[in-house]
Amino acid sequence: MSTSTPLLRRGAFDRLVLAALVLLALVWMLPLLWVLGLSFKPNEFLAGHTDVIFSGPFTLENYLDILHTSAVFRWLGNSAWVALCQTVGVLVLSSLAGYGFARTEFPGRKIIFAMVMFGLAVPAQTTFIPLHRLFSYWNLQNTYAGLILPGLAAPFGVYLMTQYFKAIPPDLEEAAMLDNASRLKIFFRVVLPLTVPAQVTLAIFTFLGSWNDYLWPLVIATKPEMYTLTRGLASTQTNFAQSEGLGFLMAQAVFAGLPILTLYLFFQKYLVTAVAGNGRH
């Protein structure tokens, strides 16, 4: 009787915590459900009612208006290409830099690493003016290079991969060195495959940040054919979008978020593993 009492109390506490987490999740999802519900409402109806989202009338007109925008698939392709290139570039550069900081000794290593970490404290917006002047001088406005290159500087990626490489036992590399394997071969065949959870986590965060980026494409892309999806959809909004086209505005938000949601659903296992710290062995 005395043994079962603590177990019952622990079970009741666990259920209480679970109920609290479910409640918080529902509260967190309410704005998303509100956005989704409004996206299926006629704009004329939303001009006078924004509090009724789960009952009629419903329409697909807002999504059809997005698809009827002639350049929307061009913008979608631009966003996908920019986000993909930035993700691949960040993975390559962060992995090489992280391995160098974690496993090699070279003059000024600690100072250089501290300078990289200092980049985490610098808001990206503070670099827009010098970057714009530099890219204008190089004639990189309205080019994919102009959209992609600034995103390759990823201090967080370097930090994440450095810490992940440090957590890998050096014995694995020492065994490979005894077989006369080069440092580059050890990196690609022994160490890098062990960092898949961290790589996927970094890829998701990088892709998400690039896909949702609005300010830099607003600065560097001035021609409609070079707009990313966020920049392009924003250009289709009127000055009275909140009052006259609220459903269209919400449909744009849902449309822009669907690729990210799909990406997360496919790779959530790796993301959870990396955050939990169980993917190092």
From TrEMBL:
Keyword Cell inner membrane in the entry? The reply is yes
Q: How does it sit in the membrane?
A: Multi-pass membrane protein
Ranges of residues in domain ABC transmembrane type-1: 76-267
- Looking at the Swiss-Prot or TrEMBL record, what is one Pfam family this protein matches? BPD_transp_1
**TM segments?**
12-36, 80-99, 111-131, 143-165, 186-208, 246-267
> Looking at the record's lineage, which domain of life comes first?
Bacteria
**Compartments (UniProt record):** Cell inner membrane; Cell membrane
Keyword Plastid attributed: no
List UniProt keywords, sorted A-Z: Cell inner membrane, Cell membrane, Membrane, Transmembrane, Transmembrane helix, Transport
Question: Do you know which InterPro entries this protein is assigned to?
Answer: MetI-like, MetI-like_sf
Instruction: List the PROSITE patterns.
Output: ABC_TM1
Q: Residues of the signal sequence?
A: none
Q: Could you describe the subunit structure of this protein?
A: The complex is composed of two ATP-binding proteins (UgpC), two transmembrane proteins (UgpA and UgpE) and a solute-binding protein (UgpB).
- Record function comment: Part of the ABC transporter complex UgpBAEC involved in sn-glycerol-3-phosphate (G3P) import. Probably responsible for the translocation of the substrate across the membrane.
Q: Identify its protein family.
A: Belongs to the binding-protein-dependent transport system permease family.
- Specify the protein name: sn-glycerol-3-phosphate transport system permease protein UgpE
UniProt source species:
Roseateles koreensis
